[in-house]
Each structure stands twice: as C-alpha cells, then as structure tokens.
Amino acid sequence: MSKYIFVTGGVVSSVGKGITVASIGTLLKSRQIAVSVQKLDPYLNVDPGTMSPYQHGEVFVTQDGAETDLDLGNYERFIDVNLTAESSVTSGQIYSAVIAKERRGDFLGGTIQVVPHVTTEMKERFHLLAEKSKAEVVIIEVGGTVGDIEGQPFLEAIRQMRNDVGRDNILFVHVTLLPYLNSTQEVKTKPTQHSVNELRRIGIQPDIIVCRSDYPIAEGIRDKISLFCDVEQKAVIPLPTVSTIYEVPLVLEEEGLGQLIVDKLKLKSQQPDLSRWQELVDLIKTPREPVNIALVGKYVELRDAYFSVREALQHAVLYHERDIELIWVPSETLENDGDYSVLRSAQGIIIPGGFGVRGIEGMVKAATYARENNIPYLGLCLGMQVMVIEFARHVLGSDKPNSTEFDASTRYPVIDLLPEQKDKKTKGGTMRLGNYPCQLAPGSHAAQAYGQDLVYERHRHRYEFNNQYREQLEKAGMVYSGLSPDERLVEVCELANHPWMVSCQFHPEFGSRPGRPHPLFRDFIGAAKDILREGAQPSLPLSPGL
Ligand code: GLN
After folding, report:
1. DSSP code of 31?
2. How far is CA 298 from CA 52, 58, 184, 308, in A?
3. How far is CA 442 from the centre of its chain?
4. Ligand 1 centre and the CA of 405: distance in Å?
5. Parallel, antiparallel, or unpaired: how do β-strands 413-417 and 402-403 relate?
6. Mean pLDDT, to the nearest integer, of 128-152?
7. Does the beta carbon of 382 lie inside 6 Å of ligand 1?
8. 460 and 354 Cβ atoms separated by less than 8 Å
C-alpha cells in the first residue's frame, strides 16, 4: 500500500510550496523510492484550461492531454516523471463528479453533503493515483493557503486520511513563511503559529514544518516554532531563499528532511544520490557568458505565463555552458512604428504559445525581423502559426494572410480550424490536447536535433496549417520537417534559406528537463549562441603585455 505525504501552505501563497513538494519528490527518488505527485486546486474551474494566463500563469499539459497547474511542470522536471490526468484534481472536478452521481441516482434517498460525499470523492482521487502509479509514496499538495474558504473540504478529506490509512502511513508537512521585520531586524514566527493553530482547529497536527524565509533562521527561532507548534526541533526545516530553484533539494537534504521522512514513514531506502543536482547547481553558479534571447509574447508582464519556456531555455543554455539573458518583449510594442531597437541585441527570437488577436501583428513583425536578419527563431504553437502567416505574407506580397482565429474572413486563411474542431460547441477541454506522433523529414534541422525520425510531443491548440497553401509556400522555401504520420497535419516547419528558423505546432517546453534539454531548445540556443549582435564583442584571447 502507498504511503501519503500531504503538503499544506500557511501565511501567504506563492511561498514555494510547489517547489518544496517537487524537492521532497527528488529527495525520495534519490533514495530509490518510487514516488508520484498530485496537486489539489481548490478553485471551481474543472481545469485551468479556460483561465487567462494573467489569472493562472502557464497551463501545463500532461502527455495524456490534461490541462493542469504549472506546479505539475515542476514536479515533472524535478522528479523526472511523466504525470497523467490523475495528478491534477480541482474542486470543480470533484463537485461535477458528485453532482453527476447524484443525477444518476447513485445516492438515491440520501442528502448529498460536503462530508462525507465530497470528501469521499476526494479521497477516491488520492487512492486512484496511488493504485495507478503504484508509487511507494504519493505526495499531495493542497493548493492555496490554510484558512481559505474553498480549501476547507480538501483539508477535511486529508484529515480523514490519517484514520483511513493509519498513522504510520501518512505525514503532514506545512510550508510557511517567516516574515522579516526591518525595524527590529528579526524574523517573526507568529504568523506560522497562527496558521498551525488553524490547521489544528481542523484536526491536523503537522509532523514537519518547512519555514521559508528571505533571511537565515537562527536556532532559537527553530526552538520557538518547535515549542509553540508542537513539532520536534529537527522537524522544523529552514528553507531560506536560494538563487536557483534547483538548489532547494540540496538545501532540504542538508537540513535532514530526506532522512526525517524516511524515518517517520518507516521507508526502506538507499543512500541518497544527489550528485547530479549538485553538478547542476555548481554549473548554474559558475559565471557563464550570456546568450541574449528575445521572448516576444502577449503575457510577458506575468512571467509565470511562460514558466516551462523559461525553464527549457535555462536547460538549453546550461547544456552549452552559457547563461541566458531574456529580453521580455510585449508583442504589442512592436506593432505600430516598426521600432525594432529592442530586438537589436537579440541573438535569437522565441515566440511562445498564446490565444486571441491582441499582439499578433507585433509577433509577425518579430518573425519578419528574424527571417530578414538571419536571426535564429523558435516558434512554439502560436509561434509556428505566426511564422506561417509571416512567410505567406512575404510570398504572396500581401498583408492579408492570417489565421481565421484573428481574422475570420481573411482571403488567405493560411492557418485555419482543425476539421475536428469545427463542430465543437464548448470551450473547456476541447482543444487538440496531449501527445501525438510526428514524423520528421530526414536532413531537416528538426530531424538533426532529435536524432530520430518519429517523436511524440504534447499539443494544445485548435488551429493548424491550412494544407491549401502547402505547395505554394514549399516552392518559396518552407520545409515541412514534421508531419503527422498520415501527413495530414504540419507539425514542424522551417525555412530552407535561413540558418535556423524552426517552429512546431506542439509544446516542446513541457518535455525539457534539467540536464536533458529538449532537442529543439538545445539546437535553437546552439544556433543563437555564436550570433554576434549590436553591442557584443567577439571574445578575443587575452595575451599578457598587449
Ligand atoms: N491559438 C492557437 C490555436 O489555438 C495557438 C495555441 C497555442 O499557442 N497553444 O491553435
């Protein structure tokens, strides 16, 4: 039977609970313990697929096509697993399942209540993941902060779990923030005490408290939290802010969290091997020459909207032993006056995914700039559609080619709805989602990058390349370097007369891992790193005496 670790958050949100959960997974995996992870989101949306990136940040897509919270991306990157839909549970899913059962008559005669019906449905999701993944330890993150109204049923469900599975098989970890007061120059424990009180009121006594802080945490503070929150001193784990998220597993291991969990859950374990993480962090901390990449998107004010893209870029520059300098370009700013000065220092341009017409013309301009100036370009989903629109405008000598998403009555619909999308009436969960195969053309940049000819990648889109324009654009130099095996859908395209302008209809960023960059990101940076741009100096060997 699987054992469970439930992780709650206190004091404030965005305190790093997701990274802590991912890191706990890393510590267990490094001891050869099989883990799986689940995120519980208390909001009433069935999934985040219909939410604005400004509300939610990135929507992470699993291989089996679930639209999920960006924390799942961190779990996948840290634990190096491919998760499935069962790893993402929202209140919306729970309530719709319970109400569907009620309508079916499953509870005939009963009054449907939060306890037990909603909490039972929740616990079934915990057990389902445990059974399906066969993990020894299932780590479950409760989204939000203790005290939120909508989080209460989840907390009640995890409280019940202690009796259901037995005390030796469950751990409660609470992640809190210790704020720092400038006037007295001390970190304060009171908010943590209050949030633990709130947990206790619900019936949950944390076994471990992870204390986030921007400042070092003195022994005395640990003692105080231990005393007031009734947790062993060694189970109060300080987690000061570190320069890279990939250092968090190392810090937590250093503080003894791995061994503590193994002891408390009575797990059989090997000696931890975190050497790969240590090497990664050492490399990140070594000064490296930056590669300047412009990210042209419509949600750039909220960087979490591109979380996996940033991580994939980071993995790729590390592979080349370089650093990254990201130039965030709100695409609308390129639209009117054709002022490209912000792109002048970019050694590569990346256009990530997105929806809706705002900012599209600016992205098209960035693509023109990349094509005309031989700047490496990587288009991701919308970024591929933009590349096709731009190239079609160039070839047809007209500014009219467009996607029907942005101009429903365009004369040249070079990007159009997928046929199977035409009769879709509802928006939630109805895109082309998850893994699909893609056949690569030998000799293309894409095939070279992957080093194989059949790949599976994650999708999230409604529109596609319109095959009516295939021949015409091909004659002008567009290469269809990736197609669906039935050759119906263009999955990757690139330009023949350009050093590296490659785009894909899927989202390679979701598959990139620290130490194993995604091939397209790796080669994009490979192409960009040696491009010399304005203000840059070629590095000359320094000889003494000159
Ligand atoms: N809006 C485009 C589509 O639906 C692109 C989607 C995306 O970038 N994920 O096809």
Report:
1. T
2. 12, 13, 42, 16
3. 31
4. 9
5. parallel
6. 95
7. yes
8. no
